[in-house]
Amino acid sequence: MPIETIKLGQVLSDPATMREQFNKLAPNSTFQSFHDFLELAIVEADSPFIFNAGSDNLAIDPAINVQEGGVLRATAGDGDGSAAADGSQVCLVVPVQVNNGGLAFECRINLTDITKCSAFVGFTDVTTLEEPISVSGTTITTNATNAVGFVFDTAMTTKEWWSVGVSGNTDDTGSNTTGVAPVNTVYQVLRCEVNSTGTQGVFSIDGVVVKTLSVGVAAASTNLFFTVFINGDGSNSAAATADIDYMLVEHNR
């Protein structure tokens, strides 16, 4: 794409300018939902999101945390470690389906303390409070019927991001470690691309492919919703947080 001169006084964040540039980079044949969290506050009713939180007093709905670049912060509780008590979750309520082709998500995120939390970043099939997938030791627990994404859990034997998928309540048999661990307060870019039949998911971290699942990562014709979920581990007295710098969801129209 050729370099264009910015006109004097041109407002780059003007909706008309942004729409023009978007259509050059991503033609109208592509659906994209991108959020950089530059607002001072987000009101759920006026946004494309649903915010969920557990019953613990420290578990709160995700909210803007004003810092460089803009951040949405999810804050888990310090109760019994269940999603119902300690979970904090943001869901993008615009549904997507695998069979449109080109389905992908990308999210830049950091966890504040990997010794006391679990997290899921990816697509799931409900927008109510739920930990879609978790791992304890080497055992995967799928609460979602259809989901695909990254999981971290302090209860894992190998404490790394795992690539996981479940299609029609059948876990992908290749779900396993990626070889890359989260680091406290260090941002990582998590991305997953799913083929149009839901039989393959390609996972990358910071631009490097780390895992490919090739059995069944999500049902092709089921509504999916992008979500970031964080939970406490049930044994700590301080809340864990996840900072989301941006999220991107896309597929073919």
- The gross shape turns out to be globular
* Amount of beta strand: 35-45%
Helix proportion range: under 10%
Number of strands: 18
What is the radius of gyration computed over CA atoms, rounded to a whole number of angstroms? 18 Å
Name of the top-level CATH class: Mainly Beta
The number of distinct structural domains comes to 1
Q: What low-confidence regions span 5 or more consecutive residues with pLDDT below 50?
A: none
What letter string, H or E per element, gives the SSE order? HEEEEHEEEEEEEEEEEEEE
The secondary-structure class comes to mainly beta
Give the biggest sheet. 8 strands, antiparallel
CATH architecture: Sandwich
Query: What is the arithmetic mean of pLDDT?
Result: 90
How far the N terminus sits from the C terminus, by CA atoms, comes to 23 Å
Number of helices: 2
Give the CATH topology.
Jelly Rolls
